[in-house]
Description:
Bound molecules: 5'-O-[hydroxy(phenylacetyl)phosphoryl]adenosine
Radius of gyration: 22 Å
Shape: globular
Mean pLDDT: 95
CATH architecture of the largest domain: 3-Layer(aba) Sandwich
Amino acid sequence: MAELIIPNRIYQPEFECMDRAERRALQLKRLKESIERASVLDFYKKKFKELGITADKINSLDDLRRLPITTKQDLRDYYPFGFFAVDRSKLVRIHASSGTTGKPTFVGYTKNDLDLWSTCCARFLVAGGLTPDQVTQIAFGYGLFTGGFGLHYGIEKVGAAIIPASSGNTQRQIMLLKDAKVDTVICTPSYALNIAEVIKAQGLKKGDLAWKFAHFGGEQWTEEMRLKIEDALGIYAFNNYGLSEIIGPGVSGECAARTGMHIQEDHFLVECLNPETLEPVAEGEEGELVITALSKEACPIIRYRTRDLSKLFWSEPCPCGRTTMRMSRVKGRTDDMMIIRGVNVFPSQVEEALMKVGGIAPHYLIELYRPGNLDQAVVKIEMLPETFSDKMDELQKLKNSIDREISAITGIHFDIQLVAPNSLERTGGKAKHVADYRGLKID
Ligand code: DLL
C-alpha cells in the first residue's frame, strides 16, 4: 500500500493529548473512586478486608500493586450478577463475554457507562480516519457480543452513517458495500478475508468499490495478515483492542502512524506483568495485560487478568500528538499457547510463517494429536484456485518452503497438509485456528 495520508484528527485532545502528570493525577482520583464503587461487591469487600485496603489508603498509582487481582474464574464464581455494583434500576444494558466453555460472563452498563464506551470507540475510530461524511458497514454480530453495539454507538458519536449489516451472508455484505458505496467496514480480520475472497470470486476489482478503511478487532491477527488484506482489498486496516469484561471494544486503537494501539488511559489503567510472577515487566517487554477500569459504574473491575500477551510503550512520543501509552499488537492469549513436544508455540507464529509463503490462501487450521506419547502437529493450509494442482513435485516444493518458514520461527516441524480451496470452515466472527485433540481418546 502507498503511504497512508489522512488528516490527523483527534476526537478528545483534552484527554488524548493530556499532560502526562495531569493524567496520572486524574487516574489516581478515578482509581480511588473505582475502589469505592467496588467496595460494595462481596468479592472485593472480602479481598480489601484481607489486604487492609480502603480508597483513602491509596496514595499513588504505585499502590495499584497492592490491590487484588481478578480472574475470569472469580467472575464465574459470582455468576450471574455478582460483579454488578449498581441497583438494577440503574442498569441499561447487559452484554456477555464469548465464553467458549460453560456459561458466559455477564457485563452490565449504566447510562454513563454506555456514554463512556461510545466515546472510547469514537476516539480510536477518528484516530483511524473516520469522518462524519463516511458511510460505514458494521459486519460484527449485534447481540451479546460487544463488537456490534460498541462500534455502532461509537460511530454514531462521530456522526458517520451506519449500515448495521451484522455478521454473515457475505454475498449480501458485498452487495451493500458496492451499492451503498461504503467507505469503512468494521469486522474481524478473518471475516474481511472471507469478504475479500468472495469479492474476487465475483470478478470485482479493487476499484469497483468505494471501500477505503477498515477497523478490525476482536481476535488476534498478524502484521503479515494486515498486509495481505490491505493488498487484496486496496484498503487501510486499523487494529483496535478490547474485551467485554473491561468494556468491550474501545480499550485501545491505532492512529494513522500505526505505532501501536493508543490506550484510553484516562479510563483504563493497563499493567503489563510477567504471567508467572505477576511482577511488572520493563517497557517494551512482553507480558500479560492486567487492566483496571477507572470510570465504569456498573462493573468496576480491578486488575483483571486478560490472558492477552502484549508489550507497552510510553517513552517514545507518537507523531500524532497523543500522549497516551501504546500497546503492541496482541501476540496471543496465554491460554492459546500450544506446548508441542515441550516447545511453546503460538498460533500467531504459524500465521506469520505462512504469510511469507506465496501460492497459498491465508486460511489455515492447526490440529494437534497425541497418537502415542509424542505430540503430532498438523497444519492444514488452503491452496489458491490458481495454484491448486496434482503435480506432486510442485506440491512437495511448496510443502518444503512452508516447513522451512514454520520451523525457522517455531523450532517445530509440522505435518503440512495442503487442502483444496474453500475447504476449511469460514466464520462470520472470530476465526478458530487450533483444534487440539490431544486430551481426547481417538479410536
Ligand atoms: O472481542 C471485544 C472487541 C470487539 C474488541 C470488537 C475489538 C473489536 P471478547 O469477546 O470478550 O471481546 O473477547 C476479548 O478478544 O481478550 C483478546 O484475546 C481478543 N481480542 C480482542 N481484540 C483484539 C485485537 C471482544 N485487536 C478477547 N487483537 C481479548 C488481538 C484481540 N486480540
